[in-house]
């Protein structure tokens, strides 16, 4: 039988409802796992044990009284540090914010709590949520449970590491440049980046801001695709101030695989894929082909990869600049003023993007919307597109100067942040993307792949992940944590 700590949240909820286990016993089991394994991992960086115990006891009393139980009744879970939760720190790993204790509850978190989830802790992030690694001067470094010398990903790295090691049953992360997707890939779990603004992000912030950030979304990570589906059904839908005419009845995936045409984008000169990652993508394509799906490895949306990536980088840098301090933005403006208007170096572009005027941002936004229409036409012919998430498996920790970092792809050095290319395909166009474990590479580390679909096809991309999970492409515990 699957140990409790590696069961899906859906299965744990069923066990609590049936009386197989109490909510208090489930919580204590996960707290024991944290005590046993969190030290070397450093994934869970805040805990509310006594509050969680009181909530678990209340959940058991409610069940005993015959009260109506929510779909996550009594299920212990953790959330990314960046969510607001009363009495807990929300710092984004920024040392100056180390004493920022929030008193509100993020919308997505309140919806999970309303469904019965018992949130007992928070998980680690990189500073400003802006890295493929999860380390900062407040909480330290989170390690990958498959190899402690390697990154678990970022910025939801603590989330993915905690799930893979069996320290929690479900997680909520966030994603602007792959921050749900690359940790899911590096740690061998499932993750979902939803259609932009499908899940209200209010409360995923350092302050009381209510405006959604461009490109950025909030969404779940889990050990099963069923949990992604359940979580998205619970947290998706209008925020309170939105027009109530919007329908959140999202279409699911019906019919056999033989009805589907599935595109494959295996590599690209901007971000070549390692042989190890490419082999797992080929294995998935072959399995889908054998199951009857039509595999299309040649057609692409009608835009150049370089144009899409340039547009993504501009809008991403502009969105990230909104999180920067006034002093940082002034420094960028001052430095840009010293450069020639004709300077097209990476530094010059970055500085321009960080200090965009509304007029120039609007031009980038127009380019983005033309890309969105190209995707719309593409998805008139193809149901889904499967791509890598990152070009390599989890790489060794590298805390050197960001501008000097490189990633090794089969002996070829690639600029570190070029790895956002694959995440940016769906991100810039506001599209949903579901990551599923595609098996282990030849180095023994997990590989995740992303399923991209048209806007609001979130339950369909998750549905394909469910089909693939049933075909054997699912979660495998890291060997050191499998007991």
What features would you describe in this structure?
The chain has 483 residues and is α+β, with helices and mostly antiparallel strands. It has two domains: 4-243 and 385-481, Alpha-Beta Complex (Amidase signature (AS) enzymes), CATH 3.90.1300.10; 305-376, no CATH class. It has helices at residues 9-18, 23-41, 49-64, 107-114, 157-164, 181-187, 225-235, 275-290, 305-321, 326-337, 346-354, 358-378, 420-427, 458-470; strands spanning 44-47, 76-80, 118-123, 135-136, 140-141, 171-175, 190-193, 217-222, 261-264, 294-296, 384-388, 406-409, 412-415, 433-440, 446-452. Strands 6-8-7-14-15-11-9-10 form an eight-stranded mixed β-sheet, sandwiched between helices. α5 packs parallel to α6 (181-187) and α9 packs across α12 (358-378). The radius of gyration is 21 Å and the shape is globular. The termini are close together.
What does the secondary structure layout of this molecule look like, with pairings?
Elements: H1 9-18, H2 23-41, E1 44-47, H3 49-64, E2 76-80, H4 107-114, E3 118-123, E4 135-136, E5 140-141, H5 157-164, E6 171-175, H6 181-187, E7 190-193, E8 217-222, H7 225-235, E9 261-264, H8 275-290, E10 294-296, H9 305-321, H10 326-337, H11 346-354, H12 358-378, E11 384-388, E12 406-409, E13 412-415, H13 420-427, E14 433-440, E15 446-452, H14 458-470
Parallel strand pairs: 2-3, 9-10, 9-11
Antiparallel strand pairs: 1-3, 4-5, 6-8, 7-8, 7-14, 11-15, 12-13, 14-15
């Amino acid at each position: 039988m699957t140990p409790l700590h590696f069961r899906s949240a859906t299965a744990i909820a069923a066990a609590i409802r049936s009386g197989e286990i109490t909510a208090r016993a489930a919580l204590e089991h996960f707290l024991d796992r944290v005590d046993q394994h969190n030290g070397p991992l450093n994934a869970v960086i805040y805990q509310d044990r006594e509050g969680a115990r009181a909530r678990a006891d209340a959940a058991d009393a409610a069940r005993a009284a015959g009260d109506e139980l929510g779909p996550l009744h009594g299920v212990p879970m953790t959330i990314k540090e960046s969510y607001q939760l009363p009495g807990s720190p929300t710092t984004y790993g920024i040392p100056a914010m180390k004493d920022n204790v929030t008193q509100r509850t993020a919308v997505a978190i309140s919806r999970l709590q309303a469904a019965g989830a018992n949130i007992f802790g928070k998980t680690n992030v990189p500073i400003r949520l802006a890295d493929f690694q999860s380390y900062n001067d407040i909480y330290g470094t989170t390690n990958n449970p498959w190899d402690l010398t390697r990154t678990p990903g970022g910025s939801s790295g603590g989330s993915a590491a905690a799930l893979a090691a069996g320290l929690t049953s479900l997680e909520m992360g966030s994603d602007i440049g792959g921050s749900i997707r690359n940790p899911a890939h590096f740690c061998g779990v499932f993750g979902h980046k939803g259609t932009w603004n499908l899940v209200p992000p209010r409360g995923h912030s350092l302050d009381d801001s209510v405006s959604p950030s461009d490109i950025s979304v909030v969404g779940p990570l889990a050990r099963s695709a069923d949990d992604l589906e359940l979580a998205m059904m619970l947290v998706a839908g209008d925020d309170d101030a939105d027009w109530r005419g919007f329908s959140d009845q999202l279409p699911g995936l019906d019919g056999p695989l033989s009805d589907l045409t599935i595109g494959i984008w295996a590599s690209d000169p901007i971000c070549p894929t390692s042989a190890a990652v490419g082999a797992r993508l080929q294995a998935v394509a072959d399995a889908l082909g054998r199951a009857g799906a039509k595999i299309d490895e040649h057609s692409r949306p009608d835009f150049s990869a370089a144009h899409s990536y340039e547009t993504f980088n501009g809008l991403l840098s502009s969105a990230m600049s909104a999180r920067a301090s006034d002093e940082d933005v002034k420094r960028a403006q001052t430095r840009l003023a010293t450069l020639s208007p004709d300077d097209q170096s990476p530094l010059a572009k970055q500085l321009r993007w960080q200090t965009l005027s509304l007029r120039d941002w609007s031009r980038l936004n127009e380019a983005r919307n033309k890309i969105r229409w190209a995707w719309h036409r593409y998805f008139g012919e193809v149901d889904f597109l499967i791509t890598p998430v990152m070009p390599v498996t989890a790489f060794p920790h590298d805390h050197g100067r960001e501008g000097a970092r490189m990633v090794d792809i089969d002996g070829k050095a690639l600029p570190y942040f070029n790895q956002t290319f694959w995440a940016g395909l769906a991100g810039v166009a506001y599209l949903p993307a579901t990551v599923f474990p595609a098996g282990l590479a030849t180095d023994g580390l997990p590989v995740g792949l992303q399923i991209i679909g048209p806007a609001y096809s979130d339950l369909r991309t998750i549905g394909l992940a469910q089909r693939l999970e049933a075909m054997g492409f699912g979660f495998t515990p890291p060997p050191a944590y499998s007991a």
